[in-house]
Amino acid sequence: MQIKLVSENKITQEQVEQVFNLPIAIGRDLSELPPNLNNEPVSPIVLLDNNRQISRFHAQIRLNNNRVYLEDKSSNGTKVNGKLLVKQGQVLNTGDTIIIGGYTITVVILEGGGQDEGTVIVGEAATVFNFDPQSQVLPASRLEPIPNVASSISFNPHTGILEQQVSSSPSISRSEFPYNLSFWHRPQISLREIESSGFLVRETEYLACGGGMGSFVWVDMLRIAGVKTENIKILSNQEKPYQRYKTLLKNCQISEDKRIRSGSDSCPDNIWGWPGYGLRDAKKALFSGQIGAAIGFLWQVFAEPVHADTYTPIAGDVFDSMDRESERINWQKMLEPGAILSLRQTEDGRYCIAYCSDPQNRRHYQFLLARYVHICTGYPGLKLLPDLEKYRQEYPQETGNSRTVVQGYEEHDHIYTHLEKHGGTLILRGSGIVASQVLDRIYQARKRNKNIDVIHLNRNPRSGN
Predict the structure, then answer these.
(1) What pLDDT sits at residue 265?
(2) DSSP class of residue 260?
(3) What is 147-260+314-384's CATH number?
(4) Residue 122 has what pLDDT?
(5) What is residue 148's predicted lDDT score, i.e. its pLDDT?
(6) Which residue, among 437, 355, 309, 389, has the nearest Cα to 178 in the 3D structure?
């Protein structure tokens, strides 16, 4: 029998769904988990825990009289639907919530051998719930992804537009550049074959692939170190290094006058980190006569996070600062518009990047040779939950401004416009930073039309002021 365990990655705030065969052993030490239970191989789950709240062998889930049964084996206990179990057991049903240490896991019992939704865990090695940024990462070879599922939205590599991807594993056509060139399929390619291909070939010393904020920091460091602009190229389909980030902020209702979730010392325009945005805010407030505000900013920076809320900069200030640094290092002079298609190593130890300088029309293909390459392409995609995927498959006519069900990072201003004109009910699922901004936007919309109701769904009870 199989069960699905649904949890939330505390770093990305994405919902994670994994399917396991029973029985299951849970703990923080793989060596202490039993390999078998009643002569059946165990599916081991390791919950990483630096605070030692989770026992080495904390709990097990098994079948008992054809019912899914959890048995606590720990010192600190396991909570099931808020009830603390210590060295006790309880029958589990679909929708039950298990709390072990800092992990909250929802149970879904799969009847008839399971469903095809969620990541299926294969093999006998342990599954690591990796919510600790300093912990080991579960190898990709341990997971069996669902094939051909429109499971994410991401920036189109040709147009730079944020959109839903039709497939999680796009196919490569061997009839298109550069895969229509026979030499491109070898591990290393020769300069003679590149030059005789008939396509424009150029050279540079340093190449940044992506052109986002990661590329910006690397190029900024090179320029500060004295590398000349003529020795650096930046391949990107965005004009500004923060363009994609700005799009995501706009879609999740964080305008340029709002503060973003970033530290005072996280300054893409200043690799030294000093002065940070907090000190810049304090200086600006002081010279404008707002002494109280200046002291408040300094208090936040030096007292966070114990005695004060964490300081976060205003989005517009960050963008303006990056614009100033971009102008200082001549970012536009190094920027090469284009969509990166593929990369190969050359026989002389350099790298050859095949790209398209006119990606929207799929023309003007070129090669660029570089000695040093920095690849920083940003997030691979934003996950869509299975029920949203299923809804879009059933209602394909909902596109663009006709969509009534959206993911928080997709463009959805039309929904607020509709509510302001006609009123209605908004169902909001989740309670992360995006959900809070959506609620703030609905608060503004209700000033124009009070006939707007909100149903806020959370998998677990929430508390706060």
Answers:
(1) 73
(2) P
(3) 3.50.50
(4) 40
(5) 45
(6) 355
Answer left, alpha or beta for residue 143, where phi above 0 means left and psi between -120 and 50 means alpha: beta
Query: Domain locations in the chain?
Result: 2-144, 147-260+314-384, 272-313, 385-457
Phi, psi of 146, rounded to the nearest 5 degrees = -75, 125
- In the predicted model, residues of the chain with pLDDT beneath 70 are 9-14, 111-151, 157-159, 165-174, 360, 379-381, 460-465
Residue 157 Cα distances to 170, 341, 413, angstroms: 12, 9, 24
Tens-digit pLDDT profile for residues 47-61: 888 778 899 999 999
- Eight-class DSSP state of 76: S
Biggest alpha carbon–alpha carbon distance for the chain: 75
What is the pLDDT, as a whole number, of residue 127?
54
Q: At 266, is the secondary structure helix, strand, or coil? A: coil
Contacts 24+ apart (CB under 8 A), 344-347: 344/184, 344/186, 344/187, 344/188, 344/189, 345/187, 345/188, 345/189, 346/188, 346/189, 346/190, 346/191, 346/194, 347/188, 347/189, 347/190, 347/191
Tell me the average pLDDT of the chain.
84
Of 3.30.300.30, 1.10.760.10, 2.40.50.100, 2.60.200.20, which CATH number belongs to 2-144? 2.60.200.20
Quote the CA–CA distance of 444 and 460 in Å, as a whole number: 27
Task: Order the strands of the 382-383 sheet from edge to edge.
Answer: 162-164, 152-155, 382-383
Peptide bond preceding 305: is omega within 30 degrees of 0, i.e. cis?
Answer: yes
For the beta sheet containing 78-80, the strands, ordered from the edge strand earlier in sequence to the opposite edge, are 83-85, 78-80, 97-100, 103-110, 2-8, 15-21, 119-121, 143-144
Coil/strand/helix, residue 216:
helix
Strand intervals (E) in 38-166: 40-41, 43-47, 59-64, 67-72, 78-80, 83-85, 89-91, 97-100, 103-110, 119-121, 127-129, 143-144, 152-155, 162-164
What is the Cα 106 distance to its own chain's centre? Answer: 21
Note the pLDDT of residue 172.
55
Contact 310, 277 (CB under 8 A): no
| pLDDT given for residue 139 in this prediction | 40
Question: By the 8 A CB rule, do 336 and 233 touch?
Answer: yes
* CB 205 within 8 Å of CB 372: yes
CA pair distance 158, 196, nearest whole angstrom: 26
